[in-house]
Amino acid sequence: MVILTGNTLTMEEMKRVLYKKEIVIASKESMKLVEKSRMAVEQIVQSKKVVYGITTGFGKFSDVLIDQNDVEELQLNLIHSHACGVGEPFPEIVSRAMLLLRANALLKGYSGVRTCVVEQLIDLLNSEIHPVVPSQGSLGASGDLAPLSHLALVLMGEGEVVYKGEVMDAITALEAEKISPLILKAKEGLALINGTQAMTAMGVVGYLEAEQIAYQSELISSITIEGLRGIIDAFDEDIHLVRGYSQQVEVAQRIRDYLSDSQLTTAQGELRVQDAYSLRCIPQVHGASWQVLDYVKEKLEIEVNAATDNPLIFNDGQKVISGGNFHGQPIAFAMDFMKIGVAELANISERRIERLVNPQLNDLPPFLSPEPGLQSGAMIMQYCAASLVSENKTLAHPASVDSIPSSANQEDHVSMGTIGSRHAYQIIQNARRVLSIELICALQAAEFRGVELMAKKTRNFLQEARKIVPTILKDRIFSRDIENMNDWLKNVDITPLISPQTSIEMMKEEK
Fold first, then answer.
1. What is the CATH number that goes with domain 209-307+334-406+416-501?
2. Which residues are known catalytic residues?
């Protein structure tokens, strides 16, 4: 069970809720804060104070006063008018993350909603009723207005959801779980949609997948090293300790651990003095990508516990401030950074694929073909990998450097963070397919060298992977192999193979 407080949600807890469907509850202390901020909103309405979004219109209409009797219609109109997202829906797991993050943000007690709104979000999450949220249409400030409006519709019994594997009208799923639709009161519509939860949810899911493929890339590249009889000296601990990047040290250590008992690796000078960069510099390149992922994780864990709507209510309503916490710039930068870090994992992987298939760069059968000439083997798999990494280079263009004014120039600088998060996710999917191709090629090369000579950990991984993609004995439709391997990598957990980080402890002691 995960207890939401608005302040303590971690990446590990999100992983359990998103993937293992762990039950979520709100802490009693946080719900008391929600109640207090709600009382402040009701007092504002009753006293007819001029407060943005409570007794006024929105955006450029912030100077239009709203009658006390129209505050409910104001919220309904807000959700209806702002629910104009387009394009393919976000993945269902991202929609699930949006519910989790929105509930957690409201539990901070600065948003002025009723407790029933938080309870409804949590009920949808625990009942696995996931809003269908179009993925395009957000500028990333004033938050993710369009996507979050589609989420808010569901609380009102409108829009569509995915429930038990089927897309249906929201009201049908709510009735099945005996959940009553809400009529949104003053401030509640605005509190639900004025935030960064779409870009952050997409970012969290992307990060969790990126972290997984970063670990997998080290194990896959270890098999490539065996297939190419790579030089193990380049991973010597002393080399990496003297540079000082902990992530680089960790990558080198994990690869040493994977290959500790391999009979296929070589020493410098045994076959050659140095390997190409795509082998020799794996710790430096992969380690730098881990630095990126560590930065992204830090920013996401701040954002998932942030109050990002507007206005925010402080001191029991004595201070109500219109600000700009909905602006997604911190996450926009993080998503653009993640795009670059993951794209590089794919870039260097594609270069290793080339070394596995190019007969001018190795002593393996040309293109790993069972009958070179008659059969093409992995020749076009390398083409596919090259296409994917080139597509990633286009997607890696930073979304955050763009801005366009909206709401009659009232909202004149926006983050494009949601676009960045979507592009990051596309890059992650492409990168996994590139790694799938590397793994298919590396398995073939390792078998050519002799499976019995492989390290125990890489050999065990080969045996599991061969249940997904069999040995290439004859040309076949390799698209199926790539997709099957990709699907397997998306779900396989290699963390039991990862050794403790003793090298990092040593480095810290030396300092």
1. 1.20.200.10
2. 52
